[in-house]
Design a protein that fits this description.
By secondary structure, the protein is an alpha+beta fold. 42% of the residues lie in helices and 22% in strands.
């Protein structure tokens, strides 16, 4: 079971918000990459965003992914 920040299962679209605090340790970084690979193998499309990216970019990207 993968815990995602945001998911649209019917479209197999996953959104991850990567923050430095949550991913500041090597083990968290490695775990996230393994989870991302598993999602991709299952046919999901994964989109990653950081805190420095604008809300507008996130919204535009997700809208396009769901279209």
């Amino acid at each position: 079971v993968a815990l995602l920040d945001l998911a649209y299962p019917a479209k197999q679209v996953a959104i991850e918000l990567d923050g430095w605090v949550a991913h500041g340790h090597r083990s968290a970084f490695d775990r996230d990459r393994a989870r991302a690979n598993q999602l991709l193998l299952l046919g999901w499309r994964l989109y990653r965003f950081t805190a420095t990216m604008s809300d507008a970019l996130l919204v535009t990207t997700v809208r396009r992914a769901l279209a």
